[in-house]
Amino acid sequence: RLYPDLDEDVVEATAALASQADFITPNLTEACLLAHEQPRTECDSQFASRLARRLLDEFDLRGVAITGVELKACRIGAFAFDGTEEKYFAHAKADRICHGAGDLFSSAMTGLMLAGKCFFDAVRGAEKFVYAGIRATIADKEHFYGLHFEKVLKKL
Questions:
Q1: CB 51 within 8 A of CB 32
Q2: Alpha carbon 97 to its chain's center
Q3: What is the model's pLDDT at position 96?
């Protein structure tokens, strides 16, 4: 669901931005809201595929990577679709929420694409980088907000 201080105007404004993009990286909730679907926490591969296809078509995108998708037990990751092919890149689910993972994913994916990686290689690289950041963060019991991505930048 939307955060309490947000309303449908935010969804409409986000949709307007998405229509200007080549690639988008919404999390599962954001993808549902953009596709006018009821947000959910559970997702199977058929729903992820339908959602990704709908977003790609509705916003005339070159690719969509939906983050925070749990398709396999104890694994979470990004479901990517480029209009032709679907791929799922996942890692072990941490027992702690790490705020900022989606922002880090988008930044890493964009940087990798600007460095010449294809869409799927950029999604794969961003997913691995975020997971490394999550592992570095949960190892620090005193840290509770944001990811310790600086410690793993060399992995990018």
A1: yes
A2: 14
A3: 77
| Residues 68, 69, 72: CA angle, nearest 5 degrees | 130
**Which residues, including other chains, have CB under 8 Å from residue 149's CB and lie 6 or more apart?**
104, 129, 133, 136
Helix pair 101-114, 119-138: axis angle to 10 deg: 140
Q: Give the strand pairing for 86-92 and 63-69.
A: unpaired
The residues, ordered by sequence, that sit 6+ positions from 69 with a Cβ below 8 Å of its Cβ are 28, 43, 48, 76, 77, 78, 79, 88, 90
Q: Are 39 and 29 in contact (CB under 8 A)?
A: yes
| β strands within 18-133, DSSP E | 23-24, 63-69, 75-81, 86-92
Give the tens place of pLDDT for each residue, 115-137: 999 999 999 999 999 999 999 99
CA dist 60 and 87 (Å) reads: 19
> What's the distance, Cα to Cα, between the start and end of the chain in Å?
32
- This prediction's pTM: 0.92
